[in-house]
Amino acid sequence: MSTLCVPSHVPSVAEDCEQLHKAFSGWGTNEGLIISILGHRNAAQRKLIRQVYAETYGEDLLKALDKELTSDFERVVKVWTLDDAYLANEATKKWTSSNQVLVEIACARSPKELLLAREAYHALFKKSLEEDVAHHTSGDFRKLLVPLVSSYRYGGDDVNLILAKSEAKILHEKISAKEYSCDDIVRILSTRSKAQINATLNQYKNEFGNDINKDLKADAKDEYLSILRATVKCLVNPEKYFEKVLRLAINRQGTDEGALTRVVATRAEVDMKIIKEEYQKRSSVPLDKAIAKDTTGDYENMLLALLGHEEEA
Amino acid sequence: MSTLCVPSHVPSVAEDCEQLHKAFSGWGTNEGLIISILGHRNAAQRKLIRQVYAETYGEDLLKALDKELTSDFERVVKVWTLDDAYLANEATKKWTSSNQVLVEIACARSPKELLLAREAYHALFKKSLEEDVAHHTSGDFRKLLVPLVSSYRYGGDDVNLILAKSEAKILHEKISAKEYSCDDIVRILSTRSKAQINATLNQYKNEFGNDINKDLKADAKDEYLSILRATVKCLVNPEKYFEKVLRLAINRQGTDEGALTRVVATRAEVDMKIIKEEYQKRSSVPLDKAIAKDTTGDYENMLLALLGHEEEA
């Protein structure tokens, strides 16, 4: 479901590093060369490149990117090269209630991926992700977000339908009473497996008529409700969630490059194929065309490379 | 710091399994043989024995122990052979507010060990530890226990002293206001690293005069406060905590075999040497002597084997 194109014959890591180093050297930077390498390597390969680059040139690749690249192009190359631990750390530092990055990392990754990000967080920042989230948030947001980022859900498909029925009822009662941040809603969304939550939300719809997210829209401007809806979508339907983030980023007055970059860089290797299909269905325009229309230069080229678009070299 | 004695020359796993199988066979069970094997193998060896036993005899070793052993001896051999995931699962099912097993598993293990227990929990029970804890508890207990068992603390020694000072102040304010289950106390105890919490509690004592646990004793009979004190002790001074559990288990009218078994079986391989020293300092009687006086037969022999006591074969 990835849109990333890795060539069938990949150069050695040493060669990749040498080429990257060359791209940074001399007068001006060779952005095309950077895209042709980094835009066509998977996560494991990129990790290895960072490691060998640092060993060979005594400088973190990230530092080199910092120095050589600018603005949106720099950002997309960096988000693509970094891992979730960095994104999460950044999000804890500039937390605003509308920041959904933490929800995405906590809910749209597999339980194992979230765990690896937490492990990387320890190594990089000498503290835990959850303590930073807890420290930088408050009130209802903290109540929901700390358990979400601390979760290590069961990852299997086993589902308990009796439980799904009873918890659908609990959710409906609490939502009807507008107790959106009550213990039960937080508990169900932050501890149950994705398969179990999916079953519960199906029961919810069967039993009470509405998608839960429709019932969570009582006040469309309430930031906590919007985070709650993002949580639900990232858990049970991440492709639809990301399609909408992309659509809003592209359609609004003045493209939201931050969101565009984040979604393309974090989903290209996961489910971007499906996101593209969803986008086309919903907007009647291919995603690459829409992005090409809204962006330019190296930034555009990098995004399109990640979307699997053939480059006009 | 372990009291477990593993012989310098350990028989092959196949031999161990054969001997165990022999111990279960025929008329009567050879308890001495079981102790001489299982009482002298480390966790990795016991795990391998269970695996090979199942492959060789088509029966889980646990089932065999179930059938052949009884009462306290059965319990100590099983707790010793099982891992934390089982103990935790048992604890979620028969939760009473005085049950401190979950606190011990969440706080007296290393962050990595807790994580491995959660992973084993997924595999064994097809759900997460935290969802079971959340489902079976309520109120203040749930508020504290779910984040504790969900924690994946930073495990390093780095400490932020400014943070320690400010959080010591927060703890003191909340405790003075008797807000024992407030967000801040739960957040600090469930997300900060053990080294950081230790620094914070040192600040607390320097600044406000008392050990925090003294201030958490406002009502000695309050079950939530007692769980909170256990949390603090398991985090910063597990040996003292377990020494006291042992001391109370032995000294009370009618030994508390449940607690005795749990502490010996879960700490023999961790810090039992220190616990023994603490016990002797505090009670002026060696722990082995005290246990030998309070227990009999195979149960006594197994406990003493785990305490590193030379067996009088």
TrEMBL record, chains A, B:
It comes from the Eukaryota. One of its GO terms (biological process) is response to cold. Ca(2+) 3 binds at T295. InterPro entries: Annexin, Annexin_repeat, Annexin_repeat_CS, Annexin_sf, AnnexinD_plant. Ca(2+) 1 binds at F24, G26, G28, E68, I250, R252, G254, A292, D294, E300. Keywords: Annexin, Calcium, Calcium/phospholipid-binding, Metal-binding, Repeat. GO terms for molecular function: calcium ion binding; calcium-dependent phospholipid binding; phosphatidylserine binding. GO terms for cellular component: cytoplasm; plasma membrane. Belongs to the annexin family. A pair of annexin repeats may form one binding site for calcium and phospholipid. This is Annexin. It comes from Erythranthe guttata (Yellow monkey flower).
